[in-house]
Structure formats: C-alpha cells, structure tokens
Design brief:
The protein is an alpha+beta fold. It has one domain. The protein is built from two helices and eight strands; from the N terminus they run αββββββββα. A hairpin with a 2-residue loop joins strand 5 and strand 6. The longest helix has about 40 residues. The relative contact order is 0.16.
C-alpha cells in the first residue's frame, strides 16, 4: 500500500513538473514573438537565432540604412550592405555554402549558392557558423556562431531554417546591391 501511494505521489509530481515546464516554454515562445514584433518596427526583416537570459539573438535587416544588425550575447555589430564581399556557411570547419561578389556584382556561387564541402549525412555537427567577409580594413570579417546563440528548438526557433533564411537574404542583398 505504501509503495502504491509513493508511486502515485511521484506520478503527480512528474505531471506537475511537466505542466510547469510546458507553461514556461509557451511563455518563452510568446515573449520571443513579442520581441520579434517590436523589432519589426525597426527592421525590414528579423531572423531569430536563439534565446538566452531573457535576450533574443537575431539578425536585423534595415533597407533604409542599408545595414545588417547582428545581436548575439548582448553585443551588437552592424554591417553595411555595401561592405559585404562574401558570406559562407561553415559546418565542422568546412564551407558548405558560399555567396559572394565578383566583378559587376555577379554572384560567385551561382543562382542558389554552391555546396562546396559535401558532408556525410551521419556526421554530427559540432560547429556551425556564418562568416561575413567584408570590404573593411579595420574589421575584415565577422562570424556568427550559430551553435552558441542560446536556446533554439525549445523556443520555437529552427536554427537550420533560420540559417538558410539568413543566407538567402544575404544572397538577395548581394544580387541587388544597387536596387536596395
């Protein structure tokens, strides 16, 4: 009898813990969506990268100022559209996609980017970053470590989809520098 009561109490505690966790996750997702909605007042496009310590890591695109703002770990970095020379998606130290300028604004990687370093599908991703090569003597490059931007999946952020959106948006900027 005591064992049955003990098991019943443990089950109730597990249920309550799971319910509280679910409510916290729902509140976090709601908070993230509210922050993104507010950021859309400043930026034409916002790409969330993660959530940590009540702070959203994101990339914001402002076509009026022609700048990209990257906020990660409480720091902001701004990149001018015209300074972008090349952008690479690097996984486990290998470039998997590269988009860049060539004379006259043509795109190095072609219409959709180039898969340069094919990865084994079973290979575990231990590093994933986006590297901006810039036409800026003082700051010739900037990297975003996509695996160190805070919580993602549990906050409703699909980091792979967001990385693809980031690459596609930068490709659009590189292709259309004169129009934006």
């Amino acid at each position: 009898m005591e064992t049955a009561i003990l098991l019943f109490m443990i089950s109730i505690m597990c249920f309550i813990g799971a319910w509280i966790s679910f409510k916290n996750q729902a509140n976090t997702i709601q908070s993230i969506n509210k922050v993104i909605d507010n950021l859309k007042n400043t930026y034409d496009k916002v790409i969330p990268l993660g959530y940590r310590n009540d702070e959203l890591s994101y990339v914001g695109f402002n076509n009026k100022t022609r700048c990209i703002t990257i906020k990660t770990k409480g720091t902001n970095n701004t990149i001018n559209y015209n300074d972008i020379v090349k952008v690479e998606l690097i996984e486990n130290g290998r470039t998997t996609m590269s988009i860049g300028n060539v004379i006259g604004g043509a795109v190095l990687a072609g219409g959709t980017g180039a898969i340069i370093g094919a990865m084994n599908k079973n290979e575990k991703i231990i590093s994933r970053k986006v590297k901006f090569s810039l036409d800026n003597f003082d700051n010739p490059s900037y990297e975003i470590n996509l695996l160190d931007t805070g919580k993602t999946a549990e906050c409703g952020i699909d980091i792979i989809a967001e990385a693809n959106k980031l690459m596609d948006t930068v490709k659009y900027i590189v292709d259309n520098k004169q129009k934006i």
